[in-house]
Write a structure and sequence with these properties.
Strand content: 15-25%
Number of strands: 7
Strand order of the largest sheet: 5-4-3-6-7
Order of helices and strands: EEHEEEHEHE
Radius of gyration: 34 Å
Structural class: alpha/beta
Amino acid sequence: MSMTVGKKGVNASINITPYIDILLVLLIIFMVAAPLKQHDHPVNVPKPAPLTQPKDVKLDSVILEMDLDHTVKLNGEPYTLYKLETTLTEVFRRRAIKSLFIRGDSSLPYGDIFVLLDIAKRSGVSDIALIEKKTNNALTGSAQGSP
């Protein structure tokens, strides 16, 4: 701080150059250090599917199937599309875990499976998993499921 004494009295002025230098150094330090800060955000990464699907299915799981001839089965019992929505609504009204497995033949068009997805969503299902149902069809030339 400098002080001059003149005719009109004392004049005090602060030299702010060192303060600006310190401010700029702090600004540079914060600019360099900001990208180094790690942000902790939880990320749910899906687990890879097992190579083989388990043969046994829990008894409490609900499986909706559609075959090539468009027959719809709920846990192995055949249903019509009209009766399916009311049945699914009753089933999932009583359940705490509202998850459904939809198994469709791999050669079915997506639109046919989408009808089942739409019925399931209207019935109150919150989690839907799609499972591929592989067929052993000699016309397609596939050797799936052969011993």
